[in-house]
Amino acid sequence: MMTISGRTRFPGRHLKSGLFCLVILLLGGLVAASVQEETPRPKPGGELRVRPLGSALNTDLDPAGSGYPLVIEHLYEGLVRLDQNLNILPGLADYWSVAENGRKVIFYLRQQAFFHNGQEVTAADVKFTYERLFKLKSRPVFFQFASRIEGGEEFWNGLSPEVSGLRVVDKKVLEIDWKQPGIPNFYFLAADFAKILPASPVQSQKKKFFEKPVGAGPFRFDYWLRNTRLDIIGIRLVRNENYFTRKPFLEAVEISPVFRLEDFFENEIQVIPYLTFRIPRDKYQILESNLLQLSYLFYSCHLPPFDNPEVRRALPAFLERRQLAGLASTTANFCQVMDSYLPPFLPGFIPESIERNQNLSRVLQTLEAAGLGRVDKPLTVNIFFEVANKDLIPTLYQFLRDELKPAGIKLELKPRPSPEELAQEKTPYLFYLDWQPDLPDPEFVLQPLFQSEATLNRSYFHYKNPRLDELLEAQKNSLNSDRRLNVFKQIEKILQEEAPALPLFFHKQRLAYQPYLKNLKARTGDFMVLNLKDVWMDR
User: Residue 483 gets which letter from DSSP?
Assistant: First the structure.
């Protein structure tokens, strides 16, 4: 490099190299600027309005009740929580220690955790919440929860004034002694029904507490939305400024079923179920996520010809499940064909697909040998439905009837009988079931449906396999997730071989939301379980 008359000169090859570097630097700056534009920083503020699914308002704000999961999830906080992929994360418990091979778990509560009324969250509140749950006795899953804790069954049956396995060690330290150690225990603690309540206000106010409840979640109750006649039409939550971790970006959330599609088009509300194809996908964002809702077609495994696994394996050759899934779908709740007994979205579970390529002539021979397979002389088979959307029953029945006619089956639609009535039934039957497990764990899918002594199976399906029962029992005390998943894969193989039911599909939700809404995510579970704590508005 030489200097002439105060100016810098570059020989040719250095000139090219220098220009190249300059271009790279400029491009790098443009890319960085572009990335910065595409990923703007979250902006605090704004009010979010959401229309839930359905036209009737749900005002139940008791976590142990049946209120909107969206409200319960944000109004209250649990000891632990689930992320959108169903992983366990700390909640009110900052951390925990495990001893005695998982039978003793000690939870250390966050020092800065307070309820919305300013009251400190203590271990006594956690103990009170769980014991209140066991006193309610309103759902079978509450007994399952109680029965896994030392002294839980005794408390449930009124034989003890407290649950001995729930021990307050210190103001901020709670010990849980489990009768059955295992991964599902944490799913009980993360469930909506296990959200922590302040003991003193609930004890003094009783049911009135839930008219204006106090939780420890990222949003707090503000007031009920009312119309001009003062009827309650929705609920308003506002940001909890004292939330123990980063507080939400949104100032407030309003939830009401009276919000209209036109309100969405006019930008008055931000989130709505995808109720119609009138919502253009090129203008609005669409969120699709899995629901913990599964559909199966069960056989009466105790009545011929369905007591024969060969027959049960043969019938799927006649059913076009994709078409059936289309009939069972709506724009907001649609069905994804499921090729396994367990849904593929459970944590760590990657099921093997069931092989369904069957030789039709051989299938017909199998069915004819079992008393089916003749269209001119069909076998009468009853069908019962237990579905979330009862309006779909006539359509689903007609499709199944037409599909199974070539198999020599004359399908008859019947009202679902009681277990006692069904015990006297001699006609073989099919049972179409929409099933929603209590917890997002394989045990809570498989045990109620396929374990020999499970109430649902014993009452309706009558499937028995001692080896499957042994495997279900073996995984209960395991803290090794890989070992548990291996057990569930073994159970899958048994079910594929014996085919006590035909897996049909799992359900998915579709929501539409305004394009300026950022970081909206849904968690597998009930409809509209959204993470509003991290949502913000870019406008």
Answer: H
Judged on CB neighbours under 10 Å (0-12, 13-18, 19+), 440 is: buried
Structure tokens at 379: 């076998």
Where does 137-277 have alpha helices with state H? 140-147, 152-156, 184-190, 199-205, 261-265
The Cα 318–Cα 323 span in angstroms is: 12
Helical pair 481-498 and 442-450, crossing angle rounded to 10 deg: 30
- CATH classification for the domain delimited by 77-210, as one of 3.90.76.10, 3.40.47.10, 3.10.150.10, 3.10.100.10: 3.90.76.10
* Residue tagged 């006619």 (tokens): 405
- pTM for the complete prediction? 0.87
Highest CATH level, class, for 43-75+217-284+514-539: alpha beta
Using alpha carbons, select from 398, 406, 432 the residue that is nearest to residue 501: 432
Domain spans, the chain: 43-75+217-284+514-539, 77-210, 291-507
- Which pLDDT does position 35 carry in this prediction? 43
Nearest to 445 by CA among 432, 436, 457: 436
pLDDT recorded at residue 33: 46
DSSP bridge partners of 220: 238
Question: How high does pLDDT run on average in the chain?
Answer: 89
Backbone dihedral region for residue 525 (phi beyond 0: left; psi -120 to 50: alpha; all else: beta)? left
Q: Are residues 144 and 455 in contact, defined by beta-carbon separation less than 8 angstroms?
A: no
Domain 291-507 listed as CATH 3.10.105.10: yes
Alpha carbon distance 33, 31 (integer Å): 5
Let me know if 267 is exposed, middle or buried by CB neighbors in 10 A (0-12, 13-18, 19+): exposed
- The stretches of 105-242 forming alpha helices (DSSP H) are 123-136, 140-147, 152-156, 184-190, 199-205
- CA atoms of 161 and 131, how far apart (whole Å): 10
Given a contact cutoff of 8 angstroms between Cβ atoms, the answer to whether 221 and 237 are in contact is: yes
Task: State both tokens at 205.
Answer: 């106010």
Q: CA–CA separation, 197 vs 78, rounded Å? A: 9
> Tell me: the pLDDT tens digits for 289-321?
999 999 999 999 999 999 999 999 989 989 999
Residue 69's contacts (CB-CB under 8 Å, 6 or more residues apart) are 192, 525, 526, 527, 528, 529
Question: Distance between CA atoms of 251 and 522, rounded to whole angstroms?
Answer: 20
